[in-house]
């Protein structure tokens, strides 16, 4: 059974940092793409970043480029999202999602996410 468990959310002041974790189990990490999405109150869910399990290539949406960094630890089957220079607009529930995919992970963002989702973790950035 595929499971994704997010952690690391919290309350932080604008300009601060947080690191989210997505612990994955039940699938072969190398054959999947894992993406981070977020959903703010009253807004549609949007893709943020993704990483390919095979070659660890990455993709970032313009809104987070140069502020967020996605990485993976294959030994721990965990994907991280380091978020720096946080803004109030980054406030949202952050979800990780996984899809069986060989190739650029951006496809997971384009189609709105993968088959498997975590429960989400709340990130709140105060001004």
Main features:
mainly beta
Q: Into which percent range does the helicity of residues fall?
A: under 10%
Shape: globular
Low-confidence segments, given as residue ranges, are none
| First-last Cα distance | 40 Å
Describe this structure in words.
With 127 residues, this protein is mostly beta strands. The chain starts with a strand and ends with a strand. It has one helix at 106-110, and strands at 3-7, 10-13, 18-25, 32-39, 46-52, 58-60, 68-73, 78-83, 92-100, 116-117, 121-126. The strands form 2 sheets. Strands 2, 4, 5, 6, 9, 10 and 11 form a 7-stranded mixed β-sheet that branches. Strands 1-3-8-7 form a 4-stranded antiparallel β-sheet, with no helix packed on it. The protein is globular and about 40 Å long. It contains 1 helix and 11 strands; from the N terminus they run E-E-E-E-E-E-E-E-E-H-E-E. The relative contact order is 0.32.
């Amino acid at each position: 059974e595929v499971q994704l468990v997010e952690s690391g959310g919290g309350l932080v002041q604008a300009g601060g940092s947080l690191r989210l974790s997505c612990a994955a189990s039940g699938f072969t990490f190398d054959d999947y793409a894992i993406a981070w999405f977020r959903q703010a109150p009253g807004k549609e869910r949007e893709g943020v970043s993704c990483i390919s399990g095979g070659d660890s290539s990455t993709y970032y949406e313009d809104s987070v480029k140069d502020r967020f960094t996605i990485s993976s630890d294959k030994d721990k089957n965990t994907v991280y999202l380091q978020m720096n220079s946080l803004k109030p607009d980054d406030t949202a529930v952050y979800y990780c999602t996984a899809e069986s995919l060989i190739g650029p992970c951006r496809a997971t963002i384009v189609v709105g996410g993968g088959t498997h989702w975590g429960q989400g973790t709340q990130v709140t950035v105060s001004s």
